[in-house]
Automatic annotation (TrEMBL):
Protein name per Swiss-Prot or TrEMBL: Aminopeptidase N
Annotated Aminopeptidase N-like N-terminal domain residues: 102-179
Coiled-coil boundaries: none
Start and end residues of each Peptidase M1 membrane alanine aminopeptidase domain: 218-432
EC numbers: 3.4.11.2
Alphabetic keyword roster: Aminopeptidase, Hydrolase, Metal-binding, Metalloprotease, Protease, Zinc
Similarity annotation: Belongs to the peptidase M1 family.
Length: 849
């Protein structure tokens, strides 16, 4: 145990822990530069172990003393842990270590944020707090004593005592160390309460700094809704007397599901109408639900090892998506999830970072908290549900909770539950967990004598380390439409299991128009040749709202492709179809707002690359802009009517219906600013009483280069609100012209309020650049160099965030030789930076291929 150099860890090498832990008692004497942690841990040999070596993880701490069964010992210590001789029987380990939370800039383990102490232990942060078997299959009952002069002292479980300068907590539910949490600070609580279905009262608290107390009501409401929903839909009740949420300003991720003490990035919980947009409200509701749902899918049933991360994350994302659909409408939610999957997971799955939903090896597990593990992991569960049906899904989940409660489980356990409860063989389905890459499904069809035949062929491109791909089981939801748009065959789920397969529909009176992959029934790329007329027909008539939207996107994409490649004019058929669709008062406003959003520039680059072209980001940018102008002019009258007719009066409400109207008027406003100039947007900016409308107006002004004054007014008004200022920074980078984006980003890094050590602020400036596609991919490589310089600097402070941001380079192979060479240079520059972290080194290594 004296090797600190990076090692690859393999799923196939899993061995059970040599020692199990019964109970853990921890005492914290908090001090910024020298916190003392005393531990008392009862170990016993694991009867299933294959070794007797006693190894505890630990780093960035000094050991003051250690005892086994009361006798002082001298372990052998390395940079990553310690070993020593132990009895071949149950024994008590005691130790005291010293750590320095104020020097912890990685924000893993125990660290400080604005004078408060907090922790982040997933995945392997607990080993920076004390020596411990820091692996998720070691589950133990924790008792914690905190000593500090700070007024609020929190840990997991239920409070068991407190006094002047101390507090004690006991968590009766055995848990892995990654779910440990501690918070100490000068905080106040927004309180609430919840009565569970069996009648137990639970105290609810959202702990914040005094300034933020007005931003908690929405989160509290979302928490109660989540608790109720999990009871009603999954039969899962909360299991402690208290549930605490804490908002933290410096946080690497979105939030963390520590047992009974969820810790949130303040951006993922704090919201008021004045400071948060409708998308913030929706995101906050979803993240609160997500972390709460982890109590059963993650905490009560946890993961055997980190390769099984999707067991908790895929399932919990799937559950939070169901929840949001129930709260806000399933049609729009499915579209939003598909857009996100295509924007974040598809590029990952089709680039050098491609990996299976359950990876088979890693160097640094923090690098695998990815869209593939989370979002594709959720898609895999959605497919499983579609294949077995809703009732069978519910019985399987009941069996899962019954069988594995209190355990650290695997994907094999998860699939066995479905096999045992449904009798279905899931051997082929398991490939979704093992094979990386996005399957392509090519569609051909024929119609003979009243029989319509769909022929589906699947193919998955090779990915790093996986050159051969075997066919997946793919649920393809299909409906058939007749001449007048009536549904001649309602939605049917075809099971595509072979490389090629035909499906027949008999007894039809005429050739139908197929609507394929309804509801985005599988995370695949569909290749079908549709005419513009067919796409326009589906946009107008498809009874499946997802595919109607999809048809509009396909029509837009086809037109844009012709503009990009062949200098075509904006497609008149698309403009007419869009105008018709948005005027349809049967369609709800949120849905019409989705129709008005064009495929993103990133989406176009990916589609062009897929079709064998080398995308040119500048041409994509210019065509996108030209089509938006054409829409603005073509639809001016209806857009102006929609803008006026969907204005809301009365006090702001973040509910889905009001948010949908704002989404529609704001989408219209953006176009109307192009056709009619800045006056509407300026008026909306001046009178807005909520952030949704203020920010949309500012964004519309910036998009026509009329936002200078509004930008300063916004800054002057909001300079003290960190979360709002993040928007101010990010919006400027996002709306910069391609040739200015690097300079704008650079200038903002000189702004006095730019604090690169705060992850949210860093992400809203430097992290915003890659999302400005044409700006980041400037042909001279200046965007790549700027990002590389900053990532090298950040890596020395915060490896997790730096490593994550290298994903901006994952689409390297998509671009022309000149850009590829610049990207490669930037990556090499990062790779050779002195003292590079293991996190970033692994990423750059994979990116360079
Ligand atoms: N489990 C947390 C969640 O999904 C995220 C933890 C992120 N940790 C990390 N090392 N990236 O809610
Ligand atoms: Zn999660």
């Amino acid at each position: 145990m004296n090797d600190a150099s990076p090692q690859t860890i393999y799923l196939k090498d899993y061995t059970p822990p040599a020692y199990l832990v019964e109970t853990v008692e921890l005492t914290f004497r908090l001090a910024p530069a020298a916190t003392r942690v005393v531990s008392r841990i009862s170990f016993r040999p694991n009867p299933d172990a294959t070794t007797k070596d006693f190894v505890l993880h630990g780093s960035d701490m000094s050991l003051l003393w250690a005892k086994i069964d009361g006798a002082e010992i001298t372990p052998s210590i390395s940079a990553t842990g310690l070993t020593c001789e132990v009895p071949n029987a149950p024994f008590i380990w005691e130790a005291e270590v010293e750590i320095a939370p104020d020097a912890n800039t990685a924000l893993e383990g125990l660290y400080m944020s604005n004078g408060m102490y907090c922790t982040q232990c997933e995945a392997e942060g607990f080993r920076r707090i004390t020596y411990y078997p820091d692996r998720p299959d070691v589950m133990a009952v924790f008792t914690v004593r905190i000593e500090s002069d700070l007024p609020v002292l929190l840990s997991n479980g239920n409070p068991t005592g407190s006094g002047e300068g101390w507090a004690e907590w006991h968590d009766p539910w055995p848990k892995p160390a990654y779910l440990f949490a501690l918070v100490a600070g000068d905080l106040i609580a927004h309180t609430g309460s919840f009565t569970t279905q069996s009648g137990r009262d639970v105290a609810l608290n959202i702990w914040v700094r005094e300034d933020d107390i007005g931003k908690c009501a929405f989160g509290m409401d979302a928490l109660k809704k989540s608790m109720r929903w999990d009871e009603e839909v999954y039969g899962r009740e909360y299991d402690l007397d208290i549930f605490n949420i804490v908002a933290v300003d410096d946080f690497n991720a979105g939030a963390m599901e520590n047992k009974g003490l969820n810790i949130f990035n303040s951006s993922a919980v704090l919201a008021s109408p004045e400071t948060a947009t409708d998308s913030d409200f929706e995101r906050i509701e979803a993240i609160i639900a997500h972390e709460y749902f982890h109590n059963w899918t993650g905490n009560r049933i946890t993961c055997r090892d980190w390769f099984q991360l999707c067991l908790k994350e895929g399932l919990t994302v799937f559950r939070d998506q169901q929840f949001t659909g129930d709260m806000r409408g399933h049609a729009v939610k499915r579209i939003v999830d598909a857009i996100d999957l295509r924007a974040f997971q598809f590029p990952e799955d089709n680039g050098t970072l491609s990996h299976p939903v359950r990876p088979e090896s890693f160097v640094e597990i923090n690098n695998f908290y990815t869209a593939t593990v989370y979002e594709k992991g959720a898609e895999v569960i959605g497919m499983l549900k579609r294949l077995v049906g809703d009732a069978a899904y519910q019985s399987a989940l009941d069996l899962y909770f019954d069988r594995h409660d209190g355990e650290a489980a695997t994907i094999e356990d998860w699939l066995a539950v479905f096999e045992d409860s449904t009798g279905r063989d899931l051997a082929q389905f398991k490939r979704w967990y093992q094979q990386a890459g996005t399957p392509r499904i090519t569609v051909t069809d024929s119609f003979v004598d009243g029989t319509y035949t769909l022929h589906l062929a699947q193919e998955t491109p090779s990915t790093p380390g996986q050159s051969v791909k075997h066919p997946f089981v793919i649920p393809v939801a299909v409906g058939l439409l007749g001449q007048n748009g009536q549904e001649v065959v309602p939605t049917t789920v075809l099971e595509l299991t072979q490389a090629e397969q035909s499906f027949h529909f008999e007894g039809l009176s005429g050739r139908p128009l197929p609507s394929i992959l309804r509801g985005f029934s599988a995370p695949v790329i569909l290749k079908q040749s549709q005419t513009g007329a067919e796409q326009a027909f589906l946009l107008a008539h498809d009874t499946d709202p997802f595919n109607a939207w999809e048809a509009g996107q396909n029509l837009a994409r086809a037109g844009l492709t012709a503009m990009i490649l062949d200098d075509a004019k904006p497609d008149r058929a698309f403009l007419d179809a869009l105008r018709l669709a948005i005027a349809d008062e049967e369609k709800d406003p949120a849905y019409r707002a989705m129709l008005l959003a064009l495929p993103s520039q990133e989406n176009l680059a990916q589609a062009l690359f897929d079709a064998g072209h080398t995308p040119d980001p500048d041409r994509i940018y210019a065509s996108h802009k030209a089509l938006r102008e054409a829409i603005a002019n073509h639809c001016q009258a209806i857009l102006s009517r929609l803008y006026d007719e969907h204005q809301l009066t009365g006090p702001f409400s973040p509910d889905a219906s009001a948010a949908g109207k704002r989404a529609l008027t704001n989408a219209a406003l953006r176009y109307l600013s192009l056709s009619d100039g800045p006056s509407r947007a300026q008026a909306q900016f001046d009178t807005a009483d909520n952030m949704t409308q203020q920010l949309a107006a500012l964004s519309a002004l910036l998009s026509i280069d009329a936002g200078r004054d509004a930008l300063s007014a916004f800054e002057a008004h909001w300079s003290k609100d960190r979360l709002v200022m993040n928007k101010w920074f990010a919006l400027q980078v996002a709306s910069a012209e391609p040739e200015n984006a690097v300079a704008v980003t650079e200038a903002l890094t000189q702004h006095p309020a730019f604090n690169w050590k705060n992850p949210n602020r860093f992400r809203s400036v430097v992290g915003a650049l890659p999302r400005n596609q044409a700006g980041f991919h400037r042909a001279d490589g200046a965007g790549y160099r700027l990002l590389a310089d900053w990532l090298i600097r950040l890596d020395a402070m915060n490896p997790m965030v730096a490593a994550r941001m290298t994903t901006a380079f994952q689409t390297m192979s998509r671009w022309d030789a000149g850009r590829q060479a610049h990207m490669r240079d930037a990556l090499r520059q990062i790779a050779t930076a002195p003292g590079l972290s293991r996190d970033t080194a692994e990423m750059v290594d994979r990116l360079l291929g």
